[in-house]
Predict the structure of Amidase.
Amino acid sequence: MEWNFQRAERLAAALRAGEVTSAELTDQAIARIERDDKAINAICVPDFDRARAAARGADQARARGEDRPLLGIPVTVKESYNVAGLPTTWGMPPHRDFMPAEDAVQVSRLKAAGAVVLGKTNVPVGLQDVQSFNEIYGTTNNPWDHGRTPGGSSGGSAAALAAGFGALSIGSDIAGSLRTPAHFCGVYAHKPTLGLAASRGMVPPPAPALPADHDLAVVGPMARTARDLTLLLDVMAGPDPLTLGVAHEVALPPARHERLRDFRVLILDEHPLIPTGAAVRAGVNRVADALADAGARVERHSPLLPELTEASMLYTQLLFSSLVARFPVEAYERLRTDAAALSADDQSLHAARLRATVFSHRDWVEANSRRELHRHGWRQLFAEFDAVVCPITPTPAFPHDHDPDSMQRRLDIDGVEYPYLDQLVWAGVATMPGLPATAIPAGRSPEGLPVGVQLIGPMFEDRTPLRLAELLEQKIGGFQAPE
């Protein structure tokens, strides 16, 4: 039987029933990677010998009567996670030989749950792109169209899932890095509530792996079904044991509802700072129509929604002030010169990005204070609604664009060009306040490319958008393998 595209939940049941062994699943996954990954380049660091050994160990454990959530299931891991015995480079050539001494906390949790790690998946340089290419490992192609990007920075993981290379993957997200690749490749991903899942060991080399969370950034699950996201999130969730002294499980509240008709949903398909392409708008409307057809309360406007333009500016300020904090002095001084040359009247996102790169601590504290006001606004909105449905980016996957200056790149939205980085505003809707967001497939573009949307939920109520994703999957369908 062909197992490569089966959901993790189905694989777990088959392993428990003795229909298949982990060794067989692992050999089948490796054979598929060896056959198909030359064209896709998703698996940048294979670890097949250790994967086969782990699979044999999983089969022996099951024979002893053991059972764990992921026992024997083949998975992949984003390159940016430390895995003992494998390089962690973040795609940065000076660190091509960096070899961490121990696993990241999430890799440890995967292994403790019994997962079989097939290898690591490709990323952009420093995880700082909506694409996945670097000088060390090359370019990852979208399985639906090799001339297009699978997204970034978890692009290798999304491409691997779409191509049948493992049942699950773990990625990270600060600017849509879980959600955008899921949208571009037609798979599922979940950006957890900020702080829900420990991230130690998901750190740029050669920095030490310390239990310090990066503002805005999260680690999270990727899968081919919504239920598999929940399965993997339950493995990943919980604070770092180094901060508590002991491992600690998080008891998330249950989903607010179990039926589509009970959900109260706000639909957003327009952003004041960038247009929504027709294909993505159609995906949002497909979800809205399915919700309405099921009897859910669907609204398209609410005075409770925090103002999106200010939210985007705050997100830009918090994101870019953080991203450049460790830049070399010479690069920082160039940014200061460029920022000083801006006109005071320039209120574009480009200007906001440049000014944010040279924020003072006072500037950052002011932005952080305004973020708290937005968080309060979201709390009020989620007293009236259960979820918000909106785009992840304005377009489906776009053609590879390797211009080294991302500020000079342009994004084509229905024939009109816009600044490349402006597409991040939709990711920021959930990221700036730290809200959970589940990326789901929502149909195909006229060119046949996947289109996804995100379901944003209340803080620490991750199970609500995850359950909504599961119900929508039953209603409108979910992952389809690329032809």
Notes: The first strand starts at residue 43 and ends at 46.
